Amino acid sequence: MRFDPPNPFNIADYFLDDRIREGLGERIALRTRDGTVTYAALQARANQFANALEAAGVRPEERVLVGLPDVPDFPAALFGALKMGAVGVMVNCYLGASRIRELYAYTRATAAIIHSDHAPTFVEAARGSRNPPRLFVLGTPDDDALVDNSSLHYVNFTSHSDDPAIWLFSGGTTGRPKGVIQSHASFANTTECYAKGVLRYAPDDITLSVPKLYFGYATGSNLFFPLAAGASAVLFPERCTADELFAQIARHRPTILVNVPTMVNHMVAHPDADAQDLSSLRLSTSAGEPLPTTLHRRWDDTFGVELLDGLGTAEMWHIFISNRPGEVRPGTLGRAVPGFEVVLCDDDGNEVDPGEVGRMRVRGRSLAHGYWQHPEATRHAFAGEWYISGDMMTWDQDGYFSYQGRDDDLLKVSGKWFSPQEAEECLLQHARVKEAAVVGIETDEGLTVPVAFVVLAVRDDSGDAASDRIAGHEADLHAHAAARLESHKRPRAIHILADLPRTHLGKVDRGALKRAACASDRQAASPAGARVPGSSA
Fold this sequence. Notes:
Number of strands: 26
Distance between the termini: 49 Å
Largest sheet: 9 strands, mixed
Mean pLDDT: 91
Number of helices: 15
Helix content: 25-40%
Radius of gyration: 23 Å
C-alpha cells in the first residue's frame, strides 16, 4: 500500500475542503461541551484565518505558531495557516515564557495565534525576543474583529506535496526537543495506510483523545483521521484526568479512544472504574510510551475494550507499527503498518534474527525532511529512504515487534544486557505499585547499576511515621524484585515518589530520573527517596 499524492497538493484540501466537495458540509466535524461544528462551518472559519494571516503580511512557507487549547479555533487556525501555504507549528499553550521565547527564536515564526487566557505568557516571551511574531490574541476586540470580519472564502495556495506543512517536535526524553519538518504528503500517506488501512476510520466514528491536539499523535488520531473519513472529533480544553475522560465518554459516546499508558493506568485504578460504561468504544489505541503487559491485561479485565498498542515517531509523523483489531497480542507493538517497512539491525547494520535485540530502521512515504538547524543529528538519523531510530526491539516469526527501550536505556550490568522494562514490569505486578520507571546510573567505580522510581497506588506519606512506612514499602519492593528477577536485573535502590517527572509530551523524563538518582547517591538521600523536578515527593 502506498499513497501517491497529486501535485499541487495541500492537506487543507485533503482533510477539509474535499469533504465539502463530497457534499458533507452539514455533517458534524467537531463536538464540544458547547455544541457542534459542521464541516462547512469549520471550512469557513479556516478561510477567515487564512485571510487574516495573509492580510497581516504572513507569506507562504513562513512559520505560524498555533498555541491554543483544544477548542474549535485550534483546527481552524491550523487549517488557515495551511491554506495560505504557511507552515504550522503547534505548541503547548501552557508552556512558560522562557520556553516560548526559545520557540520564537528557534522557529522564526512570523505569527502566533493564541488565546487571551494565555496571552500574558506569550506577550512576556515576546518582550525578550529579538524578532517576536505578530500575536493574534483571540478573545480581544481587535484581533477578534480582524478574523471575524475576514472573508469566508479562500482559494488555497498551490502547495507541492513535498512542501513543509507542519513542524512536529521530537520527544525530548534525553535533551531539548528538535523541530521535525514534515511535508503535506506525509500526513496524507499515514492517513491512508494506518487510519484507513488498519483502524478503518468510518463516517460514523466519533473520536476522543487523551493527549491534546498539539501532540502529533492526537493531531492525527483526533483531527486529521476523523476528518479524512467524514467522521467527527471531540474537543475539550480541560486538563485530561480519568474523571474528565469518563465524563466526556458519557456525554459524547465516542467509538475510538486515543489513549496513552499513563491514562490507561489512571482509568483502571479509578475507584469507580467498574461502574463506567465504555460500551460505545469499538477500540482504543495506545502510544507515546511503553504499555506494560500487566497494565494491558488490567485494562482488558476492567473494560473489555480492545486496546491496540503501537509505535510512531515524529520523524515518521505517526504510527507505523500497530496491533490490528482482532489480532492483538499484549506485550507487543504489533506488526508493521502496510506501506511501511521496519527492520531491526545490529551495530554493523545487519538484520538480526527473531528474538534478538536490534535497533529499529523504518522507511515509508511519511519520512520527514530532517531536523531544523540540526544537520549533524539529521545525518545521523536519516539515511536515504530510512529513518534510523534509537528504539531497540525484538521481533518474532509472525512479524510482531516488542519494545525493549531506547538504545541509551538498555543497561549492561555485570556484563549482561537487559531492558529496564523487565524490572518495571516486575514492579508493576506488585499490588501497591501504580507506576514504575527504572534507569541506569554509573557508580564511582564506573559500573552501571539499575535504580527504580515508583508511584504507589495509594499514597502513604503523612504523619510522623511517614519515613518509616516508606522505608517499609521500599524493603517490601526489594523483596518482591529479588524473588522474581535475576540478580543483575534487580534495582539497587528503589525511590518512592508522588509522581514521575514527564516531558512536554507527557512521556517519563528518564533524564530527570537519572539526574535525581545520581544526586541521591551523592547526597545520601533520606528514605523518602530522591527529589525529582516536577515531583511532590
